[in-house]
Amino acid sequence: MGRKNATGNKTSTVDRYRQELGRQEKKVTAEHRREIKRLKSEQETVSYWKMFSKNLITRLLNIEYPLIQAPMSPLTTPELVASVSNAGDEIRHVRSLTNKLFGVNLFIPSIQYDILPHEIDSVRKELKKLIVDKRLKNFSIYIDSIPVKLTKDIFSEQIEIVLNEKVSVLSFTFGCLSDDIVNKCKQLGIKLIGTATTTKEAVFLKHR
Fold first, then answer.
1. pLDDT at 175 > cutoff 50
2. Biased-composition ranges for Polar residues (predicted)?
3. Distance between CA 46 and CA 136 in Å, rounded?
4. In 10 A of CB 42, how many CB atoms?
């Protein structure tokens, strides 16, 4: 039993099945071609990125991709540092969470001064108020637990810790490291990354 097609000829059931099968095959083939094209595009993108990502920074720091999390002072937690390194608040804490490379960022103080306890309390109150006002209850700032040492030479203490712990990378900003610190870091194999905020700092970094 069959039916007439556009030309008036009868089309058998078998012919109709064959035609439908042909349409389905063409549909599958078209979808398959699109999928192959998409996968090829993704592979080319990955290949290009791998080729592009291999540069002086990746070789110098021995990392797979040139992705570096920006230092964010007390906003950065060891968990955040570890997650970025795998894809601080304390060097040992970060090392307990990841065996990947991470660095420490320090501000070079231009002025040494004493910080009074009531000034610290005042700042903490303002920060807490800001968190409440902006509904940042889950924001990763542990205000009350942020240690503040009331000494005139906090930076020297920080440098001593960096050297003792032999961190992989030390980045610094708002100033220049002394030749003594630079030499000690190089002797320990600590990579240095400086931020040039002035012409003087740019010249220093160029020659060091």
1. yes
2. 1-12
3. 37
4. 10
